[in-house]
């Protein structure tokens, strides 16, 4: 075991735990714990949103796919960049205002429930169940990623032990500090991630024999259109293939751990600042992640004559970091991968916990009888963070699915179940509770059924049909049922007036 690498890891873990401890006594109620009191700085909101979005896919999955199949894999990155920008442009400010007008909603399910005056809690319960279902899967992918990274860097550590170590650290600072701890750790982790993703490919080009010219010659000799964005794995890409990769963009509109950042920004007028910071970060991060895959393949060709038979393409970032940098710096770069994983898992744990405490428990008769309810709910939320993490660890150890498969399934589920409803809730005054329930149910079921029976045969990513069918279902059912009441319409118009003043 390289102790300089270990020192870098320990220093990184001390930093994130220190942030969690710092915010331990700064959360006084549920609004503080799960939404930061709507006081988040726009830079923190923007960069924490992007860090919580990307996970290990940014530093492992995307570079590995590009290394194996070529530049055609970049379409997913293009889709994500466009989707992220459109979500900030179309959803962020409106949701920040509407969520506060709609009974000061602290979570996405609570916003939907308040928006449509759902006195029976049907929307909250359905949305909370969907969130728990997919977030357990999503968090499991994060813990599995922790195990993979630890074992690659420290081969003597069993993957199960590595998963548990990573999970304990994530649980600890999420447990202590809540939303503020998660947002600020994600902010610092976003900085670390983007520095690492820029430094590694540039260093690879500078340290390869013959530089970029030698790499380019080697890549062109592959004879498979490696550097052509319309080819994937040496074959021309079909319209369906490009559309399926591009369809990842639709996921942003319904991603609970991302849209909660919009709700937390301290001033709606500052959304524009956050949007610009977010765009700059994601364009740099995705562009250089793709470059890692390209120069990684070129480096292997020039220095090793090609990709070794037993080489895992998803480990190219780890491989290059270890090859080109001293141990201490390599350890910092390895920590960037952990940052990518942890910044996603912590946000998901917090949102999943808040769905149970704020969207279900706080609305029960038990809650109405409690003294000092806010403090009790905070401690329940902390306990649920641990419970969900334990379930996710078990799934990560014994679920038997790969990281990318888990992520793509959960991304599709959230995007289809909540994305169309988010758009309709913010832009259509005529939308009602019946359309809301129909949209969620159709999106959720379409993703599950399409993934199970049709994705392999059609080649179409389940998010695309799920989003389309959910949007149609929401509109059709809303038009076929009674219009929303006057109180709902007045709240919508009040939010629209506030938004107009905030321009």
In short:
The chain is an all-alpha fold. The protein has helices at residues 3-22, 30-35, 42-54, 61-69, 74-101, 108-115, 122-153, 159-207, 211-220, 239-246, 256-264, 271-304, 316-324, 327-357, 365-368, 373-398, 403-427, 433-453, 455-458, 463-480, 486-501; strands at 231-232, 235-236.
Structural summary, described in words:
With 503 residues, the protein is mainly alpha-helical. The protein has a single domain (3-404), classed as Up-down Bundle (Sodium/glucose cotransporter), CATH 1.20.1730.10. Helix content is 76%, strand content 1%. It contains 21 helices and two strands. Helix 5 crosses helix 21 and helix 18 (433-453) packs antiparallel against helix 20 (463-480). The longest helix is centred in the middle third of the chain and has 49 residues, at 159-207. The mean pLDDT is 87.
Mean pLDDT: 87
Number of extended strands:
2
If strands are numbered along the chain, what order do they take across the biggest sheet?
1-2
Strand fraction: under 5%
Question: What share of the residues lie within helices?
Answer: over 70%
Question: Under CATH, the topology is which?
Answer: Sodium/glucose cotransporter
For this structure, what is the CATH homologous superfamily? Sodium/glucose cotransporter
- Domain module count: 1
End-to-end distance, in Å? Answer: 55 Å
